[in-house]
């Protein structure tokens, strides 16, 4: 890279799961601008993060050399020294306690190739399935729910199909702030005549555009969905032929819905019964209706059941396997779909192939030349509570996970902690060894966006300092462990992925040069799949699964009289590792705040911008008040991005029993004026 040379390189946005294509403009080894590109999912659009969020790449805070903690302080070390220490600790831990005493968190921020190598390191080189990642906190319930009812836990349709939907039903997704380009497309669809239904505890921006807005109480998703289905069944608005031909178990679900009358549901959800009826009619009477959801559905102890309720509704009205319709979980981070696809889960090898199935395990043993463990590994919170050695690649549980006090305690308990990241995060501060990783702009690879599209990530500049691409670090560790890996370029890792992962069977770097390909792409001649289940649902027939409203783990009482819910804002991303170092984004939302309704604020005697103490059963924070009508009386909201006033000191670790996803969306709290 010549210092005076200006260049433009096409790559994929590193922030959310929309997967916008952009051109990074460089001068020498500096990224100096970002321009929108007409990619298949963004069509020339970018949100503020894609446009202005690049300065973290060359930020002076970037980690430039490995660090080893000695006497409580980090000291710079060589790669040789740091990697030798890690490898000796892996061997020592395994020898002393067995392979299951080790665990790893792979990363939705890293490429597919890196996620593939991370699980290969743990499964093949170390011998444990103790691998998990942040999908455990966001869409694990999508994977478990849709795998049960449809056979695959991914967005059934494509982003651009929203433009030609008749009805767009958004439930538990603040799309404007979390998937801004998709929200823009929803608004474009509205201008073309689509109707919008929004169900959410907060009056989000899209609620203003909605034809029907159901401001439901937190934790009542299943009730509202069942109420809509009750009305659809009572009034015979369901698709009889579709149900007959393409589904099973309808009668059981029909029976289960009898008690969910609109009157009863209106009371549970705190909404008007006529609006539930209108929403049910609007959804059922349209030809092409798509459901869009995110963590407002999944981050509950009833997450898996809520996902299955969505699936029931879509199947009932024949909206699965149809263009411009479907069940569409909006995946949060840029590569959370890919991290799941690549086997970053304790039960799944790449392509959701189960670790405990003998023929699958044998297939991978042959491909990798090792024997593999058959027992399902531990999930994130179980790993945190149990292992002796933990390797975290590009995750920051000290801010992103519920009950931070408990997370800190768990991380401090672990004998040896390795963190591989681009900045010294709150989690890295607690590590024994920190490895400096290259950012997305310094490496080649692929990300898979929310619509299952595998797209290229391109090397734009040379690595900052002595940082290395995650795939190179992982390869070096495997080599040092005596399990030699010889990839010269990530494209060779993709060749291996394609050979063992049916959905990625036909994906090569040559084929995804411009447009990307949506999986399933079974072989080199397969064009990829715009929408799923056109001819057949993955599990054969769509399964109706009865689910019931059971509420949240915590309810309000005298001591904790308010409900807290959490989420994101447009200008920040996740734990602010990246956006926190971008001035233009920081100046918009520089600090944490709690949204409080005017009625509640009056009861508490607090005004806008004053400080309050918020306490839950797990912890307490001081935070600035934002008085707003976005939330209803007695419901409050805190964005979880900030270290100061971190919402996750308050959130609940109680988890969905199937997906083990914690209930980040509902905690009972008390609020006092300071
Ligand atoms: Fe990046 Fe998502 Fe914004 Fe697109 S919508 S520019 S992918 S953050």
UniProtKB/TrEMBL annotation:
Q: Which GO terms describe its molecular function?
A: 2 iron, 2 sulfur cluster binding; 4 iron, 4 sulfur cluster binding; formate dehydrogenase (NAD+) activity; metal ion binding; molybdopterin cofactor binding; NADH dehydrogenase activity
Q: Where in the cell is it found?
A: Membrane
Species assigned in the record: Gottschalkia purinilytica
Q: Which family does it belong to?
A: In the C-terminal section; belongs to the prokaryotic molybdopterin-containing oxidoreductase family.
- Superkingdom of this protein's organism: Bacteria
GN (gene name) = fdhF1
Q: Where is the 4Fe-4S Mo/W bis-MGD-type domain?
A: 6-61
Q: What is the lineage of its organism?
A: Bacteria, Bacillati, Bacillota, Tissierellia, Tissierellales
Included stretch of the parent chain: 212 to 885 of 889
Biological processes per GO annotation: formate metabolic process; respiratory electron transport chain
Q: What is its EC number?
A: 1.2.1.2
> What is the designated name of this protein?
Formate dehydrogenase H
- Which cofactors does the annotated protein need, by name? [4Fe-4S] cluster; [2Fe-2S] cluster
- Keyword line: 2Fe-2S, 4Fe-4S, Iron, Iron-sulfur, Membrane, Metal-binding, NAD, Oxidoreductase, Repeat, Translocase
Give the main location. Answer: membrane
- GO terms for CC? membrane
């Amino acid at each position: 890279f010549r210092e005076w040379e200006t260049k433009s390189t096409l790559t994929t946005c590193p922030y959310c799961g929309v997967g916008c294509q952009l051109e990074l403009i460089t001068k020498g080894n500096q990224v100096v601008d970002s321009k929108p590109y007409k990619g298949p999912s963004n069509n020339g659009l970018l949100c503020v993060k894609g446009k202005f969020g690049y300065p973290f790449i060359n930020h002076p805070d970037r980690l430039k050399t490995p660090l080893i903690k000695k006497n409580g302080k980090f000291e710079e070390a060589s790669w040789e020294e740091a990697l030798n220490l890690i490898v000796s600790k892996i061997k020592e831990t395994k020898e002393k306690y067995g392979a299951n005493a080790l665990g790893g968190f792979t990363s939705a921020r890293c490429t597919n190739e890196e996620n593939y190598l991370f699980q290969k390191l743990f499964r093949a080189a170390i011998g444990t399935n103790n691998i998990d990642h942040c999908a455990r906190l966001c869409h694990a319930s999508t994977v478990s729910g849709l795998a049960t009812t449809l056979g695959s836990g991914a967005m059934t349709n494509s982003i651009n199909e929203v433009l030609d939907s008749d009805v767009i039903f958004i439930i538990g997704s603040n799309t404007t702030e979390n998937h801004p380009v998709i929200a823009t497309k929803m608004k474009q669809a509205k201008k073309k005549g689509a109707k919008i239904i929004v169900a959410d505890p907060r009056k989000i921006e899209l609620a203003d555009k909605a034809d029907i807005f159901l401001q439901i109480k937190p934790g009542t998703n299943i009730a509202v969905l069942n109420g809509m289905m009750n009305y659809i069944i009572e009034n015979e608005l369901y698709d009889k032929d579709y149900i007959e031909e393409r589904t099973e178990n309808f009668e059981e679900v029909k029976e289960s819905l009898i008690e969910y009358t609109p009157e009863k549901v209106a009371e549970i959800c705190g909404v008007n019964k006529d609006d539930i009826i209108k929403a049910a009619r609007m959804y059922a009477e349209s030809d092409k209706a798509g459901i869009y959801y995110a963590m407002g559905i999944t981050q509950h102890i009833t997450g898996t059941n809520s996902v299955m309720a969505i699936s029931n509704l879509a199947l009932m009205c024949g909206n699965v396997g149809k263009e411009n319709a479907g069940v569409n979980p909006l995946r949060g981070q840029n590569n959370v779909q890919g991290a799941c696809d690549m086997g970053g889960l304790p039960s799944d090898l790449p392509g959701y192939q189960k670790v405990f199935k003998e023929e699958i395990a044998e297939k991978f043993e042959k491909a990798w030349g090792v024997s593999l463990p058959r027992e399902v590994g531990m999930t994130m919170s179980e790993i945190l509570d149990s292992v002796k050695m933990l390797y975290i690649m590009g995750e920051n549980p000290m801010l992103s996970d519920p009950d931070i006090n408990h997370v800190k305690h768990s991380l401090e308990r672990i004998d040896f902690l390795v963190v591989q990241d681009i900045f010294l995060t709150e989690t890295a501060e607690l590590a024994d060894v920190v490895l400096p990783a290259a950012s997305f702009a310094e490496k080649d690879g692929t990300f898979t966006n929310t619509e299952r599209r595998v797209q290229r990530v391109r090397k734009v500049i040379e690595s900052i300092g002595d940082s290395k691409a995650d795939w190179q670090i992982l390869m070096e560790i495997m080599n040092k462990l005596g399990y030699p890996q010889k990839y010269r370029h990530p494209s060779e890792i993709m060749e291996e992925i394609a050979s063992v992962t049916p959905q990625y069977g036909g994906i090569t770097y040559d084929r995804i040069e411009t447009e990307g390909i949506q999986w399933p792409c079974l072989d080199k001649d397969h064009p990829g799949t715009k929408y799923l289940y056109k001819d057949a649902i993955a599990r054969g027939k769509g399964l109706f699964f009865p689910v019931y409203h059971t509420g949240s783990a915590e309810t309000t009482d005298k001591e904790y009289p308010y409900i807290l819910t959490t989420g994101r804002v447009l200008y920040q991303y996740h734990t602010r590792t990246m956006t926190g170092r971008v001035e233009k984004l920081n100046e918009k939302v520089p600090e944490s705040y709690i949204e409080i309704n005017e009625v509640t604020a009056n009861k508490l005697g607090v005004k806008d911008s004053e400080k309050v103490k918020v306490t839950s059963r797990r912890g307490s924070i001081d935070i600035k008040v934002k008085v707003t009508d976005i939330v209803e009386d007695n419901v409050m909201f805190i964005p979880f991005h900030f270290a100061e006033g971190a919402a996750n000191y308050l959130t609940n670790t109680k988890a969905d029993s199937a997906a083990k996803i914690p209930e980040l969306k509902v905690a009972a709290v008390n609020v006092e004026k300071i």
